[in-house]
Amino acid sequence: MTRGIRVKNTDDIQKINRIVTKYPYDIWIHGKSGMVDAKSLLGMFLLSLNEPLQLVLEDDVDATALFKDLADYLEIDDE
Fold first, then answer.
1. Distance (Å) of CA 60 to CA 14, 27, 47, 64, 79
2. Contacts of 68 (CB under 8 A, 6+ apart)
3. Are 14 and 41 within 8 A, CB to CB?
4. Per-residue pLDDT tens digits of the chain, which is 79 residues long
5. What is the pLDDT of residue 77?
6. Helices (H), ranges, 1-72
7. How open is the CA angle 25-54-67, to the nearest 5 degrees?
8. Which residues contact 77 (CB under 8 A, 6 or more apart)?
9. DSSP string spanning 63-74?
10. What is residue 33's predicted lDDT score, i.e. its pLDDT?
11. Interior/surface letters 24-36, b for 16+ CB within 10 angstroms, e for the rest
12. Bridge-based pairing state of the strands 27-31 and 34-37
């Protein structure tokens, strides 16, 4: 499952990293420059923030709580 995510600066990186480390499943952020483990602060700093980014999760995870915690950063889906 993927969801667009906005990461504007290093403060956003640190806040997102603190949120995702609370969850037991793998969480990745994918961009044109590559894919990084969202739980790795060092990896997150490798992201290019001037490109569209996607939050990537396994399809069988209940991400309701995660999406609620990340609401300020997630792109709105037009479903």
1. 26, 13, 26, 12, 20
2. none
3. yes
4. 999 999 999 999 999 999 999 999 999 999 988 899 999 999 999 988 888 999 999 999 999 999 999 999 998 654 4
5. 58
6. 10-20, 41-44, 64-69
7. 55
8. 3
9. -HHHHHHTTTTB
10. 82
11. eeebbbbbeeeeb
12. antiparallel
Q: Which two tokens stand for residue 7?
A: 């990461």
Contact 38, 29 (CB under 8 A): yes
Distance, CA of 31 to CA of 64 (rounded, Å): 23
Q: What six digits make up the tokens of 31? A: 């961009």
Which residues on neighbouring strands pair with residue 3, listed in sequence order?
A: 55
The residue whose two tokens read 């961009």 is: 31
Place of tokens 């997102």: 16
Name the token pair of 74: 């997630």
